Amino acid sequence: MEIQQINDIKRGHFEALEDGKEAGKMTYTWAGDSKFIIDHTEVDEEFSGKGVGKKLLMATVDYARNNNLKIIPLCPFAKSVFDKTEEIRDVLFS
User: Fold this and answer.
1) N or C: which end of the chain has fewer CB within 10 A?
2) Residue 8, strand partner residues
3) Nearest-angstrom CA–CA distance, 83 and 71
């Protein structure tokens, strides 16, 4: 599975592709220069239960770490993963 990032000045998203088909997408909105808000995660029904959402979130966490950014997880899925996974909380905006 390939994860791609599309980013512009105000918003962006990470998308998971499997054999050229979009398996899922995680969207975000910039909240200044050093933080962004994860606002939505969706996974295609065909890929449900295959960990696509978590792969998207981990790619987002890697992006935040590599660029000294913080994340505000307003999306219920992203928030639940942050609540359950202590080792990724270093990128949370507090």
Assistant:
1) C
2) none
3) 13
* Nearest-5° Cα angle at 8, 74 to 37: 10
What average pLDDT does the segment 31-60 reach? 97
Rg, the chain, Cα only: 12
CB 20 within 8 A of CB 56: no
Side-chain-facing half-sphere of 15: CA atoms under 13 Å: 11
Exposure of 75 in the CB half-sphere (CA atoms within 13 A): 22
Smallest Cα–Cα separation from 23: which of 63, 56, 60? 56
Which amino acid, one-letter code, is at 16?
A
pTM score, whole prediction = 0.96
pLDDT of residue 94 exceeding 90? no
